[in-house]
Amino acid sequence: MNDFANETIHPDLQQNIRRLREITGGGSDLMVNEFLLSGVPAALVTCEGMVSTMMITELILEPITHVDIPNPTAERLISHIQDRLLLSLDRSVADNYRDFFRFLNSGFAIVIIHGASKALVFGVQGYEKRSVSEPSGESNVMGAREGFIEVIRMNMSLVRRRMKTPFLKMELMPIGDKSQTDICLCYMYDRVPESLVDEIKERLNGTELESVLSTGYLQPFLENKTGCLFDTVGTTQRPDVLCGKLLEGRVGILIDGIPYAITVPKLMCESFQTMDDYSFRPYYTTCIRLIKYLAFFISLLLPALYVAVALHHPELLNRTLLLILAKAEENAPVSLMAEAIGVLLVYEIVREAGLRLPKAVGGSVSIVAGLIIGDAAVSSGLISTPMLTVTAIAVISGFALPDLNQPLTVLRLLFILAGGFLGLFGIGLLGSITLFNICAGESFGYPFTAPIAPLRIRSMRDVATRVGFRTMQKGHFTVEEYHE
Amino acid sequence: MIKRIFCLCAALIFATGCTGGTAEVRERIYVQSAVLDAGEYTSLELFLFEGTGELVEGVGKDIFSATENAAVRTGREIFLGHTELLCLKSPMDSSGLMNCLDEYRLSPGCRLLLLQGEDISEDTDTTKLTDSLKLGTEKGNIPQTDLFTILKELQSADGKALAPLLTEDGISMCITDGQNILGILSQRATIGLVWLRGDNHPERITVTGENGTESFQVYSACTDVSAQIIKGIPHIKAEVKIKGKGNTNAACNMIKAYCQSAIDETAESMRADVFGIEAAIARDCSEYYAQHDFDTVMRTAVFEIDVREK
Amino acid sequence: MNRISSGQLTCILLLSEAFMIMCLSADTGLPAMAGTAIGFGIKLLLCIPAMVLYKNGFSLSSYCKERHFVLPVIFVLYFIARGGISFVLIWNSAEQLSLPYSGSLITAVLIGIVCLYTSSLGLRTFSRAATFTAGFLGITLVILLIGAWQRMDISSISLAESSGAFSGAVENLMLSDSLPVFFVLMSFTREDRPAKRLMFLPIGLLLWEIVQLLCAAVLGGLASYGEYPFFLLTSVSQPLAAQRADAIYLIVFVLLCTLRITMFTVLSAHIMGTIFPRLKLRSIIALLLMIGAGTLFGFIGYTGSPFCILPIVFLTFTVPLWLLIKKKKECRAS
C-alpha cells in the first residue's frame, strides 16, 4: 500500500479518482466534487472537516467555475489559474500522491484536472481548533497570557508576532512516516551556527518514527546518549519564552498538533528561570532564584537527610527536634526509611490519580488523600507527623521547579534508600553519581551545567542573580559561548 | 557495559545486606546525663531525656561493657551523643576522655562534673545541675570548661586541668591530673580564674570602694598572658584590661586580688597551668621552652598581675 | 576533543590537594606551615620546564601517537600506583569517620564501585564535576571556619608539635602527586596565561595554611594525639550550638575521594588509549589495576615515604626538561 508515495498523479481524471479511492481504501472522509472547468472535466478533492466550506465556496468554487478560456487544455487551465487567479494565499502544486495526501490531510483543497499530471493545491483550512489561551503549565503573573495551541501555523504566527526581524527563519518539514507531521524549525540565522541547525536537521531526518504525537517522540533524537537523568532538551508552552530562547541563539522546534515547542540546547539553569523573572525587579528576582536553588536541594535531599541523620547521625539533630522525633516515632510500625518511601509513594499515587481523573473527581482525590488518609494515618500512628511534614516540604519544594519534577521524584527515592542504608556516606556516594550524571549531560556540544561548569562569570548575571536590563542589554549573549 | 557492571555491584552491596542493622529512632534511648564510676568495675548511671527521673544502670569491666549492660537492661540502644553532663566519680585521664569523644560520639561541648563523695541519686535533677553549670559559666561565676577544654589541658605539658566539682556546698572548681583531684579552689580563686582565662567575664561585679559597696558594669574585658625571661627566670605576666561603668579603680583592685588568689592556688601551690602559661612561654620564649622541662618552668616562674582600664 | 579551561584545571588539582589535606597526618605548627610554604615554592620551580615545554607547542597526545611508549607507560604506572595509595588512604582514614557500618574496607570498595561509573564518563564530565565540588569544598571550608572559630585560641599555635620547616617542606612535597597530573592535564588545557594555569599553587597553599592554622589554633598540643588532625578538628569544631557536626564533612570527603580516584582512572585510561587505541574498557582495567595496587600497598602498609618525591621530580621536572632539550636540538638540526 505504501507504493503510492512516489507515484505521479494520473492524468486521466476518472482513473485518478479511482486511484485516490483505492489508496484511501474507500474512506468516507475523502470528498470528490467533479465539475467542468471551462469544459474540461475536473474535480475538487477535500478532506471532510478539514476545510472551511465558506472559504472554498467564495475563494475557489465561485471563481473557478467562471473560468472560460479559448481552446482549453489541462496545461493552459493550470497556468491560467496559477497566473491569473489568486485563489488562496497558501498555494502549491502536488506532483505525486505522497504530497497530494499530505496536503489533503492538512486541510488543503486540491483541484485535479483531466489531462494534468499535477494537482493544484489551495490552503483553505477550516478545521476546529482551540483558541489561544493561557498556558496551563507555565502560568505567570505579569507576562503574556498566550500559549501555544495545537495548530502549528498559529504557533508560528504567535512567534512571528513577537519577532518581526527577517533574521528569524522558520523552516517547515514533515516528520513521521505515517503521520507526516509538520514540524517547524525556528531560529535566528544570524545567531545560531549553521552546523547546529544542520546537525538538528540531520538528526530529525534520520528518525524512523511513524508518527510524532508529543514532544517526547523527538527528544531522544536531540539528546546525547549519556544517560543523563535530566532533560537536556527544553520544552515550553509560551511563545514569549521561545522568543527569549531564540534570541539567545537556541533553536526552537514547533510540532503540529502539540501545544509545546522544543528548544535546543537546554541548560540546567533554565529550569530555575521563568518569564516573570524579567518582569519583577532584579533584587526580588535574585531572591526568588536563590530560593529556587534552595528548593531544588530541599526537594532532592530533605527526606533523605532526615532519614540518614535520624537513623545514623542523631548527634547532628537539635536535641529538642530529636526528642520530638523519638516521641513521634514511638508507635510507628515500620522503619523510618520504609515510612519515608511509603509516604512518597502514596503521594505519587495520589498525584497521578488526581492528574488522570476528570477534574471534577480529581479534586475529591486531594480531599480523600489529604484529609482522610493523611489525618487517619497520623492519628493511627502509621506515619509520624515530622515525617509527613518533611515529605510535604520536599514535595512542595519540587513544585517550585516543575521542569525538574521527573528526575527529582526518582532521585528523591534513591537518596532515601542511600541515606537509609549508608547514612550521609551513602548520600555522598549517590551525590557523586548524580553530580557526574548531571555533568555528563550535553546537547549538541553544549554542557548542560553551563555556565556554572565550565564557569563563565559573565553569564552568571542571569543564573544565580538577575541583573537589570540596563546591564543585560550590553553585549549580546548567545549560548554559543558555552559550546565545548 | 560499564554501567551494567556498576549496577550489578551496587545491587550486590545492597542485596547482600552489608548495610543493614541500624537501630531505629524508637529503639534508642537518649541520655541527658551520665554518672560514671570507673573503679574496679565500671558502673554507669544514665539519666534520660524522656520521662522525668528515669534512670538506667549498667555495670561492666569498662565503659563499653557497662553501656552494653545498660542497653540489655532497657532493651534499647543507648545513644550518648546528646549527653549534656558527664559526672565522673573519679577523674578520667585524657585517653579515657578521648575515647568518650571518639567511641560514644560525645559532644566536645559536653560538660564534665567531678563528684567527690557526693552521690547523684535517682532523685537528683541532673537537668538542673546542667543548667546551673551553664548559667554559672554564662554569668561569669565559674570558668568555662567542657570535655574539649579539659581534654586539651590534660594533654598539655603539666597534665593538669581545671574541672568543676560537686561538693556539699554546690559546684566548685578543682584541679585534676586525670587520676586524682589535686585540690579544690576557693571561691576567690575560681573568680580569679574566670578573669585570667578571659573566656567568660561577668557583666556586673560588686566592688567595695570609698563610697561603700557599689556595682561595676563590665562592658568588655580581655586577658593577655605573656612571658619574659629575666636573668634566666621566666616572668609570667597576666594583663587584664577592662572597660566599664563604675568605680574602675576599685574594680581593678578587686579583680587583681582575685587573680592573685587564683595564681596562688593553682600555679604556685599545685604547679598547674590552667590559664595559658605554657602557651605564653612557648610563644614568647621558645628557646627557653625548648630547653627546659615544664615542671622546672612552673617551679621557677614568677607571676605578675596587671589589671587596668582599657 | 577533550579540552578543559584553566579554571577547571585549577579545580581538579585543588581537589586533589584537598584530599591530601583531609588525609593529612602531618605536623600543624608554625614551622610546618613555613615548610608547606617552602614546599609550594619548590613546586612552582618544578612546574617551570613543563610550562615552557607546553608554550613551545608540546602535546602529550601527539607525543604518544608518535610511537613513544616508555614515557606514557611510566605515567600510567605512576597514576595507578597513586590511585592505589589513595585507596589505602581512604581505607585508613575511614576509621575516623562516623559510618553506619563497621569495617573501613567497605568504604573503599563502595567508592571504587562509584568510580566505575564516574570514570566511564570521561575527562570533560570529570572536569565539570570538579568545578561543582570545588564550590562544595568552599562551603565546607566556611562551615569549618564557623565551627572552629569558637574553639580557636591563637596562643595554642605555639603548642602544636612540629618537627621543623624542612620536615614540613619534605612532607608537603611527598604529597605533591598533583604535579605529574598537572603535567598531563596541561595537554588538555586551552591556551591561557601561565599565571592562570598555575593558579592551583597559591590557592592550594592558602588551603593548606588555613587548615594547618586551624588545626594548630584549635587543637594545639592535641593535634599530635590523633592520627588524622583534620578529622579531629572536625570532631571538635561545632558550627551548630551544642551538637557535634563532624558527620557533615562525610559528604565532601566522599566527593573528594571519588574525584581523586576518578582523576587517576580517567588519566590512566586516556593515556592507555593513546598507546593501545583498540583496547576496550580502559577505565575498568585502570580501576582494577588501582585496586590491585591498593591491596598490595595496604598489605605492606605503605602510604608514602620521602622517596615519593623522586618520581614527582622525575615526571614533573626531569621529563619536561629532557623533552625541551630534545625539542631544541631537533629544531637546531632542522
Structure description:
The complex is a heterotrimer of chains A (484), B (310) and C (334). Chain A is of the alpha+beta class. Chain A folds into three domains: 2-123, no CATH class; 152-266, no CATH class; 280-443, no CATH class. Chain A has 15 helices and twelve strands. In chain A, a hairpin with a 2-residue loop joins strand 1 and strand 2. The longest helix of chain A has 36 residues, at 405-440. The longest helix of chain B is centred in the last third of the chain and has 23 residues, at 248-270. Chain B has ten helices and 13 strands. In chain B, the strands form two sheets. In chain B, strands 1, 2, 3, 4, 5, 6, 7, 8 and 9 form a nine-stranded mixed β-sheet that branches. In chain B, strands 10-11-12-13 form a four-stranded mixed β-sheet, with helices on both faces. Chain B has helices spanning 2-15, 63-74, 94-103, 126-138, 147-154, 187-197, 248-270, 277-284, 286-291, 294-300; strands spanning 28-38, 42-48, 55-60, 77-79, 85-88, 111-115, 161-167, 170-176, 181-184, 204-209, 212-230, 233-245, 302-309. Chain B is an alpha/beta fold and 310 residues long. Chain B has two domains: 26-184, no CATH class; 186-310, GMP Synthetase, Chain A, domain 3. The longest helix of chain C is centred in the middle third of the chain and has 28 residues, at 122-149. Chain C is an all-alpha fold and 334 residues long. The interface between A and C is large, with 32 and 46 residues.
In the CATH scheme, the class of chain C would be: Mainly Alpha
Based on the coordinates given, report the CATH architecture of chain C: Orthogonal Bundle
Largest interface: A-C, 32 and 46 residues
End-to-end separation of chain C in angstroms reads 30 Å
Largest sheet of chain C: none
How would you state the average pLDDT of chain B, rounded?
A: 86
Termini separation of chain B comes to: 72 Å
Report the portion of residues of chain B in β strands.
Answer: 25-35%
